[in-house]
């Protein structure tokens, strides 16, 4: 038995037990608190921002780049949302005034927005840190979906809500395509047929069949006919780097694709493609179609913003520049990131365009533009002014969102730790049993060796004593002979008597020594008999 392995197993068992205990304690304590959250009134107990990690706060930026636009109602007072790299804004009056939305929106880098088509109160915001959900048109953001909810890749490129089943949401990420069937609560990866860790840039439903899904990636276009379960690569004759894709509700056979090589259109469901010959339509950033006038298509390219009123047959440049923009001041124009057309035939077209410089609005379909200044600083929610209710914090801890991606590692390590804890416990029990048996055997052997040595020592001592007693007996006899000679020499009676007494005592001593030697010989014989019996038993 190697004592080294026992010590290692015992140390491993101890620390695994401590780690697993802490993990289970955190989950149990937070779970109990959540079960009694109402009775404890946790939502009324606030935690100051200074006690929260920096992940809940956005670094202040120099300007706001508009990255996403969305609209709830298309009327005289449309509700419009503008997502920027430093905050989310809402206008309740078609862009005349704006308010910043930031309560619970821990990531201010808003890449994409999606509004529930059956419930306009419910809005989803895609960010580099996951997906946020609001149930009051952005006034507050009650839920946050990241790694802990199964969304293992949290940088969101696009979001799409199934119009026939609004509980189902698709998320295009830099690491693949994900779907949730529970309004974002839990996510799972989909993509049987799509290369792993694919950067999915855009996702669209077929115009009339929501189960037919089309995605654009860095490596081409893929389509699913069963809601995302199985995928096949389509349209190999298109350039691989797909930046944007739109379909028309009026005709599902009409598909428009933007790539880094130019603008492509198909009128037969993708069987054949036509590349637009316009010289400036290269390096396409985004496409948009007027929801009321489906033949009106908007296209953002590296060299400007373009509009087509006839389904892409001809194009008109409507790029905001210093010649047609009011209130521009010293803002440097950058390529347009996102386009939001509102209107159509019933009213003059209202057009929003978001760029690296900010937000632009046109009330005459791009002929003239106004620059909307959303401010020069980023999110102003500081740690000192921010507060989170305890119920939210406990939820963040219990679900793992507080730790983010580390929570997955912790769960996996804890699971393996539980297994290792059980194995190490068995090892400790096994090694302790073997050590106990080994110790008993060693002790018995040691005791037997001691008994044998002791008996040997007794026997040797008895032999030595026997030799010494014989020497003493011989010396006594020698002394007695000398005393006899002394009695013949000395004539005085008194002296003779003394000599006789001495001789008597010496003889008595000799007699005693002889008796003692008889006992020593008897003890030696008994010891030899015991050794012989022990040897016979062992044999």
In short:
By secondary structure, this protein is an alpha+beta fold. It has five helices and 31 strands. Strand 12 and strand 13 (188-190) form a beta hairpin.
Question: Could you explain how this protein is built, in words?
Answer:
By secondary structure, the protein is an alpha+beta fold. It has a domain at 452-538. Helices cover 33% and strands 26% of the residues. The protein is built from five helices and 31 strands. The chain has helices at residues 3-35, 37-40, 390-399, 405-489, 493-538, and strands at residues 46-48, 66-71, 80-84, 87-91, 99-101, 112-115, 123-127, 130-134, 143-145, 156-161, 169-173, 176-180, 188-190, 200-205, 213-217, 220-224, 232-234, 242-247, 255-259, 262-266, 274-275, 284-289, 297-301, 304-308, 316-317, 325-326, 336-342, 350-355, 359-362, 369-372, 387-389. Strands 26-30-29-28-27 form a five-stranded mixed sheet, with no helix packed on it. A four-stranded antiparallel sheet has the order 2-3-4-5, with no helix packed on it. A four-stranded antiparallel sheet has the order 6-7-8-9, with no helix packed on it. A hairpin with a 2-residue loop joins strand 23 (297-301) and strand 24. Helix 1 runs antiparallel to helix 3, helix 1 (3-35) packs across helix 4 and helix 4 packs antiparallel against helix 5. It is rod-shaped and about 165 Å long.
